[in-house]
Specification:
Elements: E1 4-8, H1 17-29, H2 42-45, H3 50-63, H4 74-83, E2 86-92, H5 99-106, E3 115-117, H6 124-134, E4 138-141, H7 144-150, E5 156-160, E6 175-177, H8 182-193
Parallel strand pairs: 1-2, 1-4, 2-3, 4-5, 5-6
Helix pairs in contact: 1-3, 6-7
Length: 198
């Protein structure tokens, strides 16, 4: 059977990046850092100085990618997609040097051979190029710029809305959800509409 390829972002979708990053920041800075607003940019969200922010990222890049915890829903999400006959890939915006650490953090949920790292601060077009090369039919992302850019490349571009401020608005055609488990339902509906349901 010709399997349907679906791509997922990792940070904020499968992995609890924010909690992990904040814990690292508290260890590095030696104090609690309460969230002061819902801004997407971590420096603003936690009211850090530029020097503090850089120090946290330096420590995080050293050894924190590998032990980032998965959300409770991560396994359920991937298994639900696989039950639909999908092959699940991770397309993640971190540097390629962290690819092994990313695979370790996913704990085999998505095999290492199906994890693509497009680079730190890569433009949205980098993820889109991967989606195009893979032939992905659906994509789940928590950053509107990436979901917007995927329109026209995948049949179903879905934004998991985390409620962050300071980001561009989702464009017409991007499906917005606030419960990650709505994504398999959307994929199933797509497959039924296109006659590709298992």
């Amino acid at each position: 059977m010709n399997r349907i390829l679906v791509a997922l972002d990792v940070d904020g979708v499968l992995g609890d990046f924010e909690t992990h990053w904040r814990q690292c920041a508290e260890e590095v800075l030696g104090r609690g850092i309460p969230r002061v607003n819902e801004d997407h940019h971590l420096r603003t969200r936690y009211a850090l100085t530029g020097q503090e922010y850089d120090a946290v990222w330096c420590a995080f890049h050293e050894d924190r990618w590998a032990d980032m915890p998965l959300y409770d829903h991560a396994s359920e999400l991937v298994l639900a997609l696989e039950d639909l006959g999908c092959t699940v890939w991770a397309v993640t915006m971190i540097n390629e040097r962290h690819e092994a650490a990313r695979a370790e953090s996913l704990g085999g949920l998505i095999p290492a051979g199906r994890i693509v790292c497009v680079g730190d601060n890569a433009p949205a077009s980098a993820k889109v190029a991967v989606l195009r090369d893979l032939g992905a039919v659906a994509f789940l992302e928590d950053h509107p710029a990436n979901a917007n850019a995927a329109l026209g490349t995948v049949s179903l571009s879905v934004l998991l809305d985390r409620g962050y401020l300071g980001l561009e608005a989702p464009e017409y055609g991007v499906t917005v959800i606030d419960d990650v488990m709505d994504f398999p339902v959307l994929v199933e509906n797509l497959l039924k509409r296109t006659g590709r349901a298992a």
